[in-house]
Every structure is written in C-alpha cells, then in structure tokens.
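My main concern about presentation is that the manuscript never shows what a single data entry looks like. The format is easy to grasp once an entry is in front of the reader. For illustration, here is how one protein appears when written out as sequence plus structure tokens:
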Amino acid sequence: MTTHSIPVVSASIDADWASTIDGCILDMDGVLYRGNTIIPEVPAFIDAMNRIGMPYAMATNNSTNTPLQYVERLGAMGINVAESSIVTSGVATATFLKGKYDRGTTIFVVGMSALEEALFADGYFEPAGADAQVVVSGANFELKYEHLRTACLAIRSGASYVATNADKTFPTEIGLIPGSGAIVAALSAATDIDPVVVGKPSPEMIDSCLKILGVDAARGLMIGDRLDTDILAGERAGTPTLLVLTGVSTVEDVADTGIVPDVIVETLTPLTEALSARR
C-alpha cells in the first residue's frame, strides 16, 4: 500500500470555507456519541447549527435501531431531531430492495429487530428461512451460529446476498467491537459470495440526505469518523468532507489509505467556532 504524507489536523477552520456550507450530513456512531454516551463537544455544535438555521440530517450505517428509536435515543442525550431527518442503512436497504425485487419476495435476515421492521413492516417482503430468495445481513449483537448456518445454506442454494453495510467494527464506550462487516466476512468465507452493500460508502444514503436538506452536493458537508465509509461516501456523492477523530479512523489511517478529507479535526469544536462566527 502506498503511504502518503501525514495530513494536518486543523485547530481552526477557515471562515470563508465554512461559509460555503449550507447543510450538514452527520454520521452518528463515533461522531455524535459512543455507545450511549454523547461526545462532549456535540451539544455546542448542534446549538451552533440551530442558531444560524443550518439544516442537518443523520446518515448511519447502523441498522440496529429504527429512525424512531434514534429520535428517542438522541432525545435522551439532549439532541432533538425529526424522525424524517434520520436515514439508516436498514431503511436504505429496504428502499434498494423494493426497487429490485417484486412484492412477495422472501428474505432471511441476519440482523436486529429494527432491520426486520424496515424490511417486513409494510408487508412488501415475506420472511423465510434457508429457502429464502434473498439474504440480508446487518449488525447483530445477538448473533447465533444458527443465523449464519441458515444464511449460508440459503446463499449456497442461490439466494442473493445483500448487506446493509460492511463496517468491520462498531464504536462503543469501551472500544471497538465486531460490526456488520464481521458478519459479512463470515458469510463470504462460508459461501465464496460477496454481498451487494447498500450503506456507506455507497453515495445513495448521502443523496437521500441532501434531498431531505434541499441542499446541492457541493454545498453540503459530510461529517464522519470513518474514512472507508463516511468520507468515501461523501467523495462519491460530491460533497466536501470533514473527518472528526472521535471515532474509528486516525490521522495515520489517512496517510495509509490515501482517502483524504477536506478537513480533519480532533473534535467538532473548530467547526462549531467557524459556524458561530457566521452572521
């Protein structure tokens, strides 16, 4: 792998650059909170956006909660957002599948109840086992061998394989734990089939957020903590990008991967200060 020079971490953000931003798209895990603990600099950042009337939306690869559950979870942390402003990889996956498969298509899910709700709540798809036409996997904190076995049998019998996202790890208060990508790795190893991945770094979720915000890509800002998902998705969608070092990726990762955000900050404070200076 080619190693690039170590990029600069910004202690402040140029006011002229900040003035070009009309809306923000925020990853959630590692940007707003870790586990159930809010990141300390976040409330001031949200307040700064609210004071200047800047719209924002949340785009998360996490499929373990519904948009409503995220609203309630964020509310408990003191962050009040509309349900319509939250785009999860589970919701995005359901939308993707409806554009590809007919009503009544059978699906086996390796994931939490929120993903099952996104796929089955309206009755368009039907749940199934090893005879499913499609296997969908996401993060599952209650994973059992039985889930992997059934998914493996279905895929080996010809089922299509779709993953909500391929994040290998998941940030929590105590450190990184296995994420959706760990399940993808297990199923790919057992079936020799790689899934279609709907979540970031696909630009589809970013495009959905831009529509919610009513902002052109060039004037939207993708804020994330992961280079290989958040920042790459922003690049592919055509938005400026900001990496905050409160989650997964490090400055050394930028040098190693060659995925270079427009701005890198230790916390959201420099962006808060730049937005607060706007009139």
Summary: The mean pLDDT is 93. The CA atoms of residues 56 and 87 lie 12 Å apart.
